[in-house]
Specification:
The strands form four sheets. An eight-stranded mixed sheet has the order 10-11-7-12-6-13-14-15, with helices on both faces. It has a three-stranded mixed sheet with strand order 3-4-5, covered by helices on one side. The protein is globular, with a radius of gyration of 22 Å. The protein has two domains: 8-83, GMP Synthetase, Chain A, domain 3 (2-Layer Sandwich), CATH 3.30.300; 102-338, Rossmann fold. α5 packs across α6 (220-228). By secondary structure, the protein is α/β, with parallel strands linked by helices. β1 (19-20) and β2 (25-26) form a beta hairpin. The chain has helices at residues 8-15, 57-69, 114-127, 144-148, 188-200, 220-228, 242-257, 278-286, 298-306, 310-313, 318-338, and strands at 19-20, 25-26, 33-39, 42-49, 76-83, 102-106, 132-136, 155-157, 160-162, 164-166, 169-173, 209-213, 233-238, 262-270, 290-295.
């Protein structure tokens, strides 16, 4: 005999009391509940997360299960967890790119491990099942091919370049197009053109996340990118010590001036040699999220040298676990920005 207490309406009412911890809205309002089925005293439904890298997936599932089990008559609950990454709503029609979210990784100076962080973030997101691209925008000093262990692209398809692929991540870098050690002596307009071509003339396909590894500083590449491709946000990488923080704060301030959302700060190479806590200080002063710290470990350096990012080669290491947790935080911040209902300013650079 059917239990009148158990219905789609009562299930949705129960789940409307469960909040997504990062977005601070309930699962029903966010349209995260799908395919409700009731079989006797068993309830089946799907929770559609905003990212497969959701760091609080377990907590959401637990609270949803408890909420439905509290309905009189429900004996068991089966939940399927899936994900659909929201589009940030920014108009990329000029380049006609089917990219849901574009994220720049930046720093105010070189030598902070920004490319290492970019590569590992991209691989970590791909490991969750997301569709990920990694664009090396450091035209003068491209390191991504070495760090990802691949040095050629497949060729062309029609009038577009086919990106290389490693660890489930699509890749494009100037390092694929020039001979090893060949210097590029280009002025600003040529740099602008190269970045535009890396976006418009590469067959990226549909991506949930395009991670963009920017060169150091606050120069032409960052300005060109902000003009050409509306960004979902930027991640700032710094070392713990004061000199690095000073430079990172300049990079952060530049993107704030351009009205690009600051997703947060990552402190890299934390440990005895460089110290600790500087990244948290920068985030606190700038009033932006602190995404986490990556400990200084030899495995990270070895992974970069051998083309085996540490999240893939040594996933149980402390550094890899930190980077995977940071990837989850970045994905969560992107979801928050995408669903924040903010209007997106048009960036004009004179």
């Amino acid at each position: 005999m059917p239990n009148n207490n158990i219905s789609s309406e009562s299930i949705l009412a129960a789940l409307s009391k469960v909040q997504e911890p990062e977005l601070h809205r309930d699962l029903v309002t966010l349209n995260m509940i799908r395919d409700i089925k009731i079989q006797d005293a068993t309830v089946n439904f799907e929770i559609m997360l905003t990212t497969p890298a959701c760091p609080l997936k377990g907590s959401i599932e637990k609270q949803a299960r408890e909420a439905v089990l509290a309905i009189p008559g429900v004996k068991s609950v089966n939940i399927k967890m899936d994900a659909s990454v929201p589009n940030d709503g920014r108009n990329r029609g000029v380049l006609n790119l089917p990219i849901r979210n574009a994220v720049a990784v930046a720093s105010g100076k070189g030598g902070v491990g920004k490319s290492t962080v970019s590569a590992n973030l991209a691989v970590a997101l791909a490991q969750t099942g997301a569709r990920v691209g990694l664009m090396d925008a450091d035209i003068y000093g491209p390191n991504i091919p070495t760090m990802m262990g691949i040095h050629d692209i497949p060729g062309t398809q029609g009038n577009k370049l086919i990106p290389a692929e490693a660890y489930g991540v699509k890749l494009m870098s100037m390092g694929f197009l020039v001979k090893p050690g060949q210097p590029l002596i280009w002025r600003g307009p040529m740099l602008n053109s190269a970045i535009r071509q890396f976006l418009a003339d590469v067959e990226w396909g549909e991506l949930d996340y395009l991670i963009i590894d920017l060169p150091p500083g606050t120069g032409d590449a960052s300005l060109s990118l902000a003009q050409i491709l509306p960004l979902s946000g930027v991640v700032i990488v710094t070392l713990p010590q004061a000199v690095s923080l000073e430079d990172a704060s300049r990079g952060l301030a530049m993107f704030q001036t351009l009205e690009v959302p600051i997703l947060g700060v990552i402190e890299n190479m934390r440990g005895e040699f460089f110290g600790s806590g500087g990244g948290e200080d920068l985030a606190r002063i700038a009033k932006v999220p602190f995404l986490g710290a990556v400990p200084m470990e030899q495995s990270v350096r070895i992974g970069g040298d051998t083309g085996e990012p540490v999240v893939a080669s040594r996933p149980d290491s402390e550094a890899a676990r930190s980077l995977m947790a940071i990837a989850g935080q970045v994905a969560a911040r992107i979801s928050i920005e995408a669903l924040s209902e903010k209007t997106t300013p048009v960036i004009k650079i004179e």
